[in-house]
TrEMBL record:
InterPro entries: HyfE-like
Protein name stated in the entry: Hydrogenase-4 component E
CC per GO annotation: plasma membrane
Organism the protein comes from: Thermodesulfovibrio aggregans
Keywords: Cell membrane, Membrane, Transmembrane, Transmembrane helix
Membrane-spanning ranges: 25-44, 51-71, 86-106, 118-136, 142-160, 172-190
Membrane topology per record: Multi-pass membrane protein
Highest taxon above the source species: Bacteria
Subcellular location: Cell membrane
Database matches in Gene3D superfamilies: 1.10.287.3510
Length: 216
């Protein structure tokens, strides 16, 4: 399981720090696929049948639909991330610290204090913290949506880690969290697409007006 969580964190780092937005969105696909693998593995090891359904839905929505929505938005804008509030080298260094050191210490805390929760807890909390960091440090709208997505994945993992002890309630919370997250991300991507289209129309009108003035 540890290698699966390390793979999730690695592709999370790529999604958060790569300047090229297409590569950043592409990194979300293996990020989510490893989340699906982790959910199925947890279901198998702990014999929790409801997680198989959750993993299947995660595969459809997180690994397929959300990247498709984001790629649709990228059609109407440049592919390079807007300049973040933190320089790229410093941001990469901070990201490595948050993801690697954070996960390490949360894993130690979970092992010593939270024996009752599943193995997804340290990874989930690390994703949540890292997503918040990205949200504060990024100015690009696509990167901000990616940050929300990483935060939601972290919450998803945290809830899954509690399933054996609050089974019915947690399953209801998972379903509710999933529906709200999907609707929220669809709304964000649609609105983002509208904003980009309006920006392109504005630029087109400005360039046309400028050409007209030059001709006169």
């Amino acid at each position: 399981m540890a290698m699966i969580y390390i793979a999730i964190l690695f592709f999370t780092l790529l999604a958060g720090e790569v300047k090229n937005l297409k590569i950043s969105v592409l990194s979300l696909i293996p990020h989510c696929l490893f989340i699906v693998i982790a959910v199925f593995t947890i279901a198998y090891i702990n014999e929790i049948s409801s997680l198989y359904l959750i993993g299947t839905v995660d595969l459809l929505v997180r690994a397929i639909l959300m990247p498709v929505f984001l790629f649709k938005c990228l059609k109407n804008r440049v592919e390079t991330e807007e300049k973040p509030s933190i320089s790229l080298p410093l941001s990469i260094a901070l990201s490595i610290v948050v993801l690697s050191v954070g996960y390490h210490f949360i894993e130690i805390f979970k092992t010593s204090q939270l024996h009752q929760v599943l193995s997804s807890f340290p990874c989930g909390l690390t994703l949540f913290i890292y997503g918040l960091y990205l949200l504060l440090s990024k100015k690009d709208m696509v990167k901000m949506i990616i940050s929300f997505f990483i935060i939601e994945n972290g919450i998803h993992f945290l809830i899954i880690s509690m399933i054996p002890h609050m089974s019915k309630l947690i399953e209801i919370l998972l379903t509710f969290n999933f529906i709200v997250a999907v609707l929220f991300f669809v709304y964000l991507t649609v609105r983002l697409n509208e904003v980009f289209v309006q920006e392109e129309i504005k630029k087109f009108k400005e360039s046309k007006s400028q050409r007209t003035n030059n001709e006169t």
